[in-house]
Amino acid sequence: MTTTNALREIEELADMGITLSDGTRLSARVWRPVDSGTDPVPAILEYLPYRKRDGTCARDALTHPWMAKRGYACIRVDIRGNGDSQGVMEDEYTQQELDDAVEVIRWLAAQPWCSGTVGMMGISWGGFNSLQVAAMQPEPLKAIITLCSTVDRYAEDIHFKGGCLLNENLGWGATMWCFSSRAPDPALVGEGWREMWLERLRAQPFLPEIWLQHQTRDAYWQHGSICEDFSAVKTPTLAISGWGDSYMNTVPQLVDNLETVVKGINGPWIHKYPHFAIPGPRIGFLQEALRWWDRWLKGIENGVEDEPDYRAYVMDGIAPETKSLYRPGRWIAEQTGSTRHLPVETLHLTDTGLDPKGSLTAQVSTPLHAGMDCGEYGSFFAGPELPGDQRLDDALSVCFDSAPLPQRMDIVGAPRIRLRLSSDKPQAQIAVRLNHVLPDGTSARITYGVLNLTHRDSHAAPEALEPGRVYDIAFDLDHIGYRVPAGHRLRVAVSSSYWPMIWPSPERTCLTLHEAAIDLPQRPAGEADEWVFPPEDGDAPWDIRTLREASNIRRTEIDKANGEVRLIIVDDSGLVEDATHGAISGTIARETWVIHPDDPLSARGSCHWTSETGRGELRLRTETTCEMWSDAEYFHLKSGISAFENDTLLYQNDKVSRIRRNMA
């Protein structure tokens, strides 16, 4: 095996078959040096359901050929039941999925063109299962790079944040309802493509129905949550995420808890690889990854294990931008650990504001549409998805402002809110936002946290509140790196609802705050970068012809007739044709979230995805829809899927279900 990174000529295989022990054929797209048969190379596996033929092509084109030219075989595998792979996917992160991955890793290691060492890399789903597979300790797997992933499937994914039901549970379920029901490419799988598609459609699970059957942190969520046993992950781990995403907490959790070599990077980015993410500054992720693979897959002594444990971008506080292309700031580096060791300043929520000390008696009973400027749970489409100006949400909340800061403050880490409170109802929620108030009154969200108060002691065994009883409550807000300039103010905004981020409790509640304080982790404010990354790099972009331009819509409406408030979202990915093999692909995602400010049982979410694929005279389309609403006792779900071949209906299935609420 050559241990230099001299550029090598590569070849691409559009459909390398990997047949599992049960006979299921997985489809892999491969980039590898043409001479790897005589000079074997390590393998890097990316393993996920998002369709290598037409789903992840843009990022694959930038990433995998670049790495292959430097002496690696990059293998992009569609998991069972997705894209061009056979079989059926029953749920996310099943044991079947993970066992398949282990089989793939062992198969790769045994190929004559592979040196016998394997790395695993991925963002989101691929980052999740990289961690989960690493915990299974397959011998050939020597290192992983996990991006935008989680260690806790219950509390740190798209399901239940702080025990509150995230509306992303429905929204992302609708995404998978669309992605996994799409047809394989007939040009790759051959004449059996239609029957393969029908098998997939007939077996397609509506995942929110599964997820809602587990409203507490039970064995279902413990499976795949590596926080159950951090010591199981023994492979060196590079973890990366961004402040514009929903998985920023994972990076410090891994840095502080894994017992192996682990390095973490949190940048300003949304849910994208950092060599093409927004907002900038981007970094040379591929160069960082190459050094990681060189060290652990090729045994090159390059010192990556001696670099700082945690590198994070501290964003300069500016007016909020719902779509941001660049955030000014600076890079900091912590040699040992992430942020636990940083000093903390405590400010109290008082009757006069946010002060070093003082008494408090405040009631919080916010209109149920408080939160309309929360932005997406995690920005994915790169549209106007980041939190907007918080002044409207602040006006609906109970707010505590500091005096103008005498000097700038760098908040680095996870602020912790501590409360003594009582509720007038047995079920209640609380949302706490830490905001930056500019001199002109503009309010920017720094970070936030939510808690289902019945989960105050346990996500596994929630307990109803005793109305009127005073409870001591504490929880963390999300990790952040943020600079508040001198002369600006901090604001803590407290609400008893946070729509459309979380589903409301069955009854509108009134919380009484008796005492409250927030602990702010701080780092000495500096001027210069403490770490300099190489500039972004990548291979040639995906060669496509655009048939329909991409577009994004975010619109809020108030119905003056009945008082309902609606958030309407349309994300059109556009329609493109692959210039190499002629396949066309595109999606349109539509979401509507409706609530009446006074009625929690008026909450309703609906999603509709249109997906198009095909080539030449063949056009394949799926229309997937879902809705959710609730009464005091049940969640109600409605889902539908229709599949068309050249506008002729090939398959249709509609279903309704209800699931009893369990303090959610």
Automatic annotation (TrEMBL):
GO molecular function, one term: hydrolase activity
Keywords: Hydrolase
Record-linked Gene3D superfamilies: alpha-amino acid ester hydrolase ( Helical cap domain), alpha/beta hydrolase, Galactose-binding domain-like
Pfam family, one: PepX_C
Residue ranges of every copy of the Xaa-Pro dipeptidyl-peptidase C-terminal domain listed in the record: 290-542
PANTHER family named among the record's database cross-references: COCE_NOND FAMILY, PUTATIVE (AFU_ORTHOLOGUE AFUA_7G00600)-RELATED, PEPTIDASE S9 PROLYL OLIGOPEPTIDASE
Protein name: CocE/NonD family hydrolase
Lineage of origin: Bacteria, Pseudomonadati, Pseudomonadota, Alphaproteobacteria, Rhodobacterales
